[in-house]
Design a protein that fits this description.
Length: 912
């Protein structure tokens, strides 16, 4: 009885201590939870205030840009409309973020004013979107007006956001003192800057000077701006020196005192004097917005620090919550542990002793008695265990022997029945004495159906005879048989390909008792061999060049298409390295890139040049694909290629034919261009002969004749000399012009196959082409060249000149009477562009998609071959470039050729 009283006193004491401790923990946890909620509310208020400042600034910017657009709807550019659309999308995202942040803040702070402010904000957002639709309708007409309605909608939205901001930063919301001052001054600074941006943007858009009222308002705005910026600086001074703050502050001050500061003063001066503004409204809005964004960026930097402080405060509070919870759990665990210990050390040992006595009394000796400790109860339990062990020892010896026998039998059965093969035994009379269950899955028979049957009965007659003849000697000698392939009948009648191995069985006296063996289904191997032979026939009969090499590049297979295209027999290349086919037309860097690509497991595609056995070049379009084994490791590379040598020759012939067609069309004009300089060269030479005769005529007279008899001859030598110099100069220019025409004509007619890649001046090629095409162009159009700065481009100059000539001739032919052809050039990034536009009749929309189809032409019969544009398209594609076409019927067409400055391929690939 004393033991139970002690237990009661112990449990009562533990309970009282637990109640007191848990009360203290609960009090501390309540304070930590309140601190955590306060930190969450502060963090939500700070995030909402930051989003409201950004949204306020961007809505003010949209208000100004939309107002300017409505004031001059006919003069607004596509870029300005695109900027306005982008700004609207950004504002929609910011307004959605504001609504989400306000909703989140409402979960932490509930008040009627906040609910009303949220409802009002949603209504103002809907009103803004309605005002946008009305403004868009006016801009599409286009029609002025509607500015007041849009300004009212945006101003009302800004007011609603200001109301929400004041509620979230109210003094009674437990926000830290610096936070409301910081957000209020940040809002005032950005608001005043936005108002100055809107005021000056409106007068710039209207191109009028500032009125006295506007000037007075502007001074007031600037005064408030400077005062608020000083307060903003003081409010954020405590963050100086922290990460990123000084740099953000320097950028903010530079924005208003640097380039934008000078622009503000220049615009203000122009507005006061009524002179021309230095920028347009869009540029002013862009620069002013960049300056305001610098202020917002500085505010964001400070706000991130405030958020980190709040997050740290929230994390500390949460940590305290977790700590309190952990302490509470620990106290509960201690109480539970104490109760469990009492139960473990007193109650359970007695229960174990009672249960052990009952179990031994029933004769059950299999349950050991395990008691921990060294007290009297444990010693009593040890005595019970010694008794149980002695009684159980005899039973265990007998049971272990039975278990070993049963385990051995079970292991053998599991091993045999777990195999995928048929395990069998036959006696010395060739009758089955054992068949494993796999017989049914392989041949369809249950083992019981063939036990006692003769094993050759399942085979076809011919197969049975063949097996008897081939194995008689081994069976008579009782020798093992390994890997014997044979055919058996399935129960449903279809043949099954099998492979059997067997070893003889001898008894203890050495007498032969039969065979024990394993038979496996090898039908899959036969089918795989059939499929392999079929695949080899498909590969061999393919018209493409197929080659398979190992990881070291050693050729292991080629098909007949490869033999026909390269001239090599398969026995000449199998075992050789793939470098046997190298033509020397590709650089080492090209092959290095090839091996890096396929070694990484990626396919490689390229136009390549190999060399045939007879030394001729072989042009192919090749794809190399890595082959992987079942584990995903690359073991081989398969190359599939198409012989395009003949196609390449046809392409070269088409290029030369197009050149000849173009030259034939221009031949008459070129002859005229040559005849003109030759004509005035001959005329000048005739005049030169006449002047020379007049010059030397006085010299043939009597040398003693008095000069006074010929007064008019005193100025003749100087006049004749000047005329002779001018005639000789014109003659030289004419001869030079003839030489240039002939040189350009020769360069244009250069065969395409002889052209080489080089760094070329595209302006020189354009001028050369214009010189050739002058006779075709001068009677149809005025040519205007607007060349930009171009670097030297890696290209095939002769082929590009052919492209320029085709586009120029097409432009001239598209002009029915007299028009203008404009040639423009420029650079964008790592590309250059050449644009040729005309004022011709244009191209119908249904024909635009077919311009680059071979032999398609919109010209009358006899005026076009339909291969000029396709050929030009192929030349540009060879340069890894593109051609863009823009055309409108009755207005004209524009062709723009884009070319990379450098070709990132090898020389061999380029010439392919």
């Amino acid at each position: 009885m004393y033991r139970f009283k002690l237990r009661h006193i112990l449990f009562t004491t533990i309970g009282l201590l637990a109640v007191i401790t848990l009360a203290l923990v609960f009090s501390f946890g309540t304070s930590a939870l309140k601190e955590s909620r306060t930190a969450q509310r502060h963090l939500a208020a700070d995030l909402l205030a930051d989003l409201l400042v950004w949204a306020n600034t961007r809505i003010a910017q949209e208000r100004g840009l939309t107002t300017i657009a409505l004031m001059r709807p006919r003069n607004i550019s596509a870029e300005e409309l695109a900027a306005l659309v982008q700004l609207r999308e950004e504002n929609d995202r910011r307004l959605d973020a504001v609504m989400a942040a306000a909703t989140n803040f409402a979960r932490h702070t509930s008040s009627p004013q906040l609910s009303a402010a949220l409802q009002q904000l949603g209504e103002r957002i809907d009103a803004l979107r309605q005002a946008r639709r009305q403004a868009d309708a006016l801009l599409q007409q286009p029609q002025t007006g509607g500015t007041a309605a849009f300004i009212d909608a945006t101003t009302a939205l800004i007011g609603a956001m200001a109301t929400l901001r004041h509620i979230s930063q109210a003094p009674d919301s437990d926000i830290t003192p610096d936070n409301p001052i910081f957000h209020e001054t940040l809002h005032t600074v950005t608001e005043m800057a936005g108002r100055e941006r809107a005021l000056l943007g409106g007068v710039i858009a209207a191109q009028r000077p500032l009125t006295d009222n506007e000037l007075q308002t502007l001074w007031m705005i600037r005064g408030v701006f400077e005062g608020s910026r000083e307060k903003f600086t003081r409010a954020t001074r405590r963050y100086a020196g922290l990460a990123g703050v000084d740099a953000a502050r320097a950028r903010m001050e530079q924005a208003f005192e640097g380039d934008f500061g000078s622009l503000r003063e220049t615009v203000l001066l122009a507005g006061r004097k009524g002179s021309a503004y230095p920028v347009d409204a869009a540029t002013w809005y862009r620069e002013a917005t960049a300056a305001i964004d610098a202020v917002l960026a500085y505010g964001d930097t400070i706000n991130r620090l405030i958020e980190k402080q709040l997050e740290r405060r929230w994390e500390i509070a949460n940590t305290m919550n977790y700590l309190v919870g952990g302490v509470a759990v620990l106290i509960v665990l201690i109480i539970v542990g104490t109760v469990l210990l009492a139960r473990l050390r007193f109650i359970l040992p007695l229960q174990q002793l009672e249960q052990a006595a009952l179990t031994i009394g029933r004769g059950d000796l299999s349950r050991p008695l395990r008691m921990r400790g060294d007290d009297e109860l444990t010693q009593l339990g040890s005595a019970f265990e010694t008794m149980r062990t002695g009684l159980n020892e005899q039973q265990q010896q007998r049971r272990r022997a039975e278990a070993r026998l049963e385990a051995s039998t079970r292991r053998f059965r599991n091993l045999v029945e777990g195999l995928d093969e048929i395990v069998w035994e036959i006696d010395d009379q060739n009758r089955y004495t054992y068949l494993s269950p796999q017989l049914e899955s392989i041949l369809g028979y249950a083992p019981e159906e063939w036990l006692g049957g003769e094993f050759l009965t399942l085979m076809p007659v011919a197969e049975c005879a063949w097996l008897r003849d081939g194995s008689t000697e081994a069976v008579e000698r009782h020798q093992p048989c390994q890997g014997v392939e044979h055919i058996n009948h399935h129960k449903d009648g279809h043949p099954v390909f099998l492979e059997s191995s067997a070893t003889p069985i001898f008894d203890e006296q050495g007498n032969f008792r039969g065979y024990r063996g394993i038979t496996r289904d090898v039908s899959w191997r036969r089918q795989a061999e059939v499929e392999r032979q079929r695949l080899l026939r498909i590969l061999d009969q393919s018209g493409d060049l197929i080659l398979i090499a190992n990881q070291e590049g050693i050729i292991e297979y080629v098909n007949s298409g490869f033999e026909e295209a390269t001239g090599y027999r398969s026995d000449e290349v199998i075992g050789q390295h793939t470098r046997l086919l190298k033509s020397g037309m590709h650089s080492d860097a090209f092959y290095q890139q090839l091996w890096q690509t396929i070694s990484a497991g990626e396919p490689f595609q390229a136009a390549m040049i190999d060399r045939r056995k007879d030394g001729e070049l072989l042009h192919i379009e090749q794809t190399i694909t890595p082959l992987r084994d079942a584990d995903g490791w690359i073991t081989h590379f398969a190359s599939t290629a198409k012989d395009v040598t003949a196609q390449r020759r046809i392409d070269e012939q088409m290029q030369q034919s197009e050149k000849l067609a173009s030259l034939g069309m221009l031949a008459a004009g070129v002859a005229h261009e040559i005849n003109n300089p030759i004509g005035y060269v001959r005329a000048n030479l005739n005049s030169l002969e006449r002047y020379m005769a007049e010059l030397f005529q006085p010299l043939d007279r009597d040398e003693m004749e008095s000069p006074t008899q010929h007064p008019q001859s005193s100025d003749a030598p100087d006049s004749l000399r000047r005329d002779i110099d001018e005639l000789l100069q014109e003659t030289r220019e004419g001869v030079e012009r003839v030489r240039n025409i002939v040189t350009d004509l020769k360069e244009l007619s250069h065969p395409a196959g002889e052209d080489a890649w080089q760094l070329a001046d595209l302006h020189k090629g354009l001028n050369s082409t214009l010189n050739i095409a002058r006779s075709e162009l001068k009677h149809k159009a005025k040519v205007v060249c607007q060349f930009g700065e171009l670097p030297r481009v890696e290209c095939l100059p002769g082929q590009l000149n052919q492209v320029f000539l085709n586009l120029l001739v097409n432009a001239a032919q598209a002009i029915e009477q007299r028009g203008v052809i404009v040639i423009r050039t420029g650079q964008q990034g790592e590309e250059v562009w050449i644009e040729i536009s005309d004022t011709g009749k244009g191209i119908p929309p249904q024909h635009l998609k077919r311009l680059f189809e071979p032999f398609f032409t919109t010209k009358p019969v006899g005026q076009g071959t339909g291969i000029g544009l396709p050929l030009s398209h192929r030349i540009v594609e060879k340069h890894h470039g593109r051609i863009e076409v823009d055309s409108e019927e009755g207005v004209g067409s524009r062709f723009r050729v884009w070319l990379p400055i450098r070709q990132n391929v090898s020389a061999g690939e380029q010439t392919a």
